[in-house]
TrEMBL record:
Residues 181-193 have a biased composition (Basic and acidic residues). This is Tetratricopeptide repeat protein. SUPFAM superfamilies: TPR-like. Residues 135-145 have a biased composition (Low complexity). Residues 126-193 are annotated as: Disordered. InterPro entries: TPR-like_helical_dom_sf.
Length: 193
């Protein structure tokens, strides 16, 4: 019986490099969605970020789909942990953070800073004893003062391999509403300068 040769279907190194770029693109999108989710405590945004991180992780774990030496595996696990934590799925978040902390850094963007961020999240979760009962509007029952305890400081550290600036989302909050009152021109002159 003849064996089926699958080498004709293997991706070329260039195609694998494109897939690695797709992983990084998914992670950049996940960064923006996580920042938005954290700012608004939006469950749909956390779910979207989880889907993006899961897709990036699926590609990164497939040796036939991408260049394994350049796949940011630890970053995929870290972002997955952030999304799961935002969804209050604490056991899954802990597993993702542990995987991120234990993953071997493969690229400059997937280096010690990612592992440190994962370890920091595990420490935060340890202090909070992983509350299972959420408080009002998605905050944890232990009032950590950090809007649910998410520490997203490591999110903006994702750069391209070439050293260029990647998209870095910034979240700005509008100031308090100001009441505009009518000022009579005569009053302005009396107390004026």
């Amino acid at each position: 019986m003849a064996s089926f040769d699958t080498s004709a279907f293997d991706l070329t190194p260039e195609e694998k490099h494109v897939a690695t770029g797709e992983i990084k693109s998914l992670l950049v999108r996940a960064t923006a969605v996580l920042a938005r989710a954290k700012a608004h405590r939006s469950t749909p945004d956390f779910a979207e970020a989880l889907a993006l991180a899961d897709e990036a992780l699926r590609i990164a774990l497939d040796p036939d789909a991408c260049d394994q030496s350049a796949a940011p595996l630890a970053t995929c696990h870290l972002y997955r942990g952030h999304a799961l934590r935002g969804l209050r799925r604490y056991a899954g978040a802990r597993e993702a953070y542990e995987a991120a902390a234990a993953a071997e850094p493969r690229t400059l963007t997937d280096g010690p800073a990612v592992a440190e961020a994962a370890v920091r999240q595990l420490q935060v979760q340890g202090r909070e004893d992983m509350p299972e009962a959420p408080g009002p509007r998605g905050t944890s029952s232990s009032n950590s003062g950090n809007r649910g305890g998410l520490d997203l400081r490591g999110l903006s550290r994702f750069d391209t391999e070439a050293g260029g600036d990647a998209y870095r989302p910034t979240v700005t909050r509008p100031g308090p509403a100001r009441r505009v009152t009518r000022v009579d021109p005569g009053e302005q002159k009396k107390g004026g300068t």
